[in-house]
Amino acid sequence: VLVIKPYKPSQTIGGEVISHQEYDELSGSLLVLKSLVERQGIPVFNNIPVAVKCTAKILRDNINMQDLVSADLKQPVSNGHVQVAEKLFKLREAFNNRDTTGSGHISLADVCMAYRLMTNRKLSVSELKGLVSNTSDCKEQPVQVNFEEFCAIIAELKSGDAHNNNNNNGSSEKWALCSRPPRSLSVDNSSLRDVFLAGDCTDYAWTHHLAIPSLKRHGLSYHLLEEVSGSPPDLAVIDNSFVLLFVITGQSRSLSVMTMAGHYIGLGCNVVLCIQHIVEDLVLNGEKMSKQAVSDYNRGRIYLKDLAHRDNIPVFHTVDEAVTCAIEKCQSR
């Protein structure tokens, strides 16, 4: 459950008034966070009492956040049509990966494997047969299913009805994301990239002088994060990248980049990090950062590094080392 309260111009934080430049960066990072969370189909609240009420309902009724109705949320999820399209694409991708012959049908064992890859939850064929027999009017259980039937089965499984009495997938799964293997490439070959490069757009010298030339020398493709003023970056391209390289330099606040890095580490993606601490008396666009501000932003870097280490994500201090690691990951797949 996420509540985002917007910053205000000239707001005081820790006894210091933030500048207009810092306000823009703080607000931009919240915009990125909101976009990331809503792409998972999860609504973002701006009202704490409403969020607490919905949290109580989730716990009381044993439901998922996505199961809340509009009357509970008071506000819809932004770009809902985009999320539906992405979910359908992922379902089609999972189905096609198991339908190796192109027959338009997959076996129940393939359904179990696809479900496990999408959710990291185990499902046996016998459990699946039980679900099919309970939801189908047919006397004979199907040996194979088509795409429409596959979507219906996955929807039923994700509702939680099929796992309420499963000891291996108990209520503990609702508390946090499981640790998952790195996500594989999408099947949309026209937009595949080997490496996604992300850093603060005000400090992109490392991309043109080091990262991009190195990737080109090794014959690897890439996509460079582009930010548009007043709107979040195009996050869909990340789904079509094998390695996500996030560079947090010591010459920028890098709030949005750190937010994205933490999010995709949590999703179990193939992430490589370069984290540098901000030095004291740093001047950004003519503004000298206070000691308190430097301490706050460096603390965020420490939190991100700790999160990465717990998930065995490689973290480097120099861009050169991080780029080399990303290249090696691409070459070893």
TrEMBL record:
Provide the GO MF annotations for this entry. calcium ion binding
Q: State the organism of origin.
A: Cuerna arida
InterPro entries named among the record's database cross-references: EF-hand-dom_pair, EF_hand_dom
Q: Which GO terms describe its cellular component?
A: plasma membrane
**Which ranges carry the EF-hand domain?**
86-121
Where would one find the signal peptide in this protein? Answer: none
The protein's name in its UniProt record:
EF-hand domain-containing protein
